[in-house]
């Protein structure tokens, strides 16, 4: 018996045989649902070249970043090694075309003083070459103007040495009639800056006069007095004054200077190029017998007076001033990126070496 709907298959249609694949059962359809599917673990694949390269680059970047951080904390100077510096690229100079300019610093005592200066510089270099960070000094003989140093043009953290031009500018503005040093000022809480000095511990409304601010900056290196004086004078006006007196590498807001700039400041202060003799002597007085006498004053002969400014921050110890021997001289010592306990041991040796080598 023929079944009609099966017998009427067109020629284009395939005939199904027993060999044809059977449709999946209902059970197999259920297995496709997520709730019936068994969890399985993907087989571990070994790292390819890309993964290995990526990990190597990450490790290398970490090592480089750590090295840069460590070097920068020591101002790119490691013990026993020269300071690391990037190569400098300068445009060609016309010096060779229009004639060479040679600068010779004044040297009234001739070869004897020059030889002494070379010996001091060599000894200081030998003391500090195996220490961390940068050690610098600059000395100016105030009688002859002869000067020499080690790393004296290095731009370094000024710490409280940056207070020096602010102190002088307060007196300068008073001499010009732009302010009065006996003007009263009431301390605000917003004026207070922690760190060195006693004014930050005073109650709000405590009265000081402008002249007191100079005293506190010099005698105690008071940060609050410095902050108030900057507000009175203005940062732009102060920086203009710094530039005007020739401290070309000194920046107030960045707290940067060089030993050369600080030495220049003291030379001009002593030579009455900045303020009057009376004002100069008052400033030198507040810079004498300060609360910070552990470095410059302690490492010269006991009877010798030193008017100086001390400054300290993390990895920085600076001291600079005028040493009043029979022939007075300016001495600036600065450090950057140092290890504190190392510097506390060796910086006095550096100062003693310079002092003894110069006056004896």
TrEMBL record:
One of its GO terms (biological process) is beta-lactam antibiotic catabolic process. The lineage of its organism: Bacteria, Candidatus Woeseibacteriota. This is Beta-lactamase class A catalytic domain-containing protein. PANTHER family: BETA-LACTAMASE, SLR0121 PROTEIN. Pfam families: Beta-lactamase2. GO terms for molecular function: beta-lactamase activity. Residues 1-22 are annotated as: Disordered. The keyword Cell inner membrane does not apply. The keyword Transmembrane helix applies. Keywords: Membrane, Transmembrane, Transmembrane helix. Residues 137-335 form the Beta-lactamase class A catalytic domain. The chain crosses the membrane at residues 53-73.
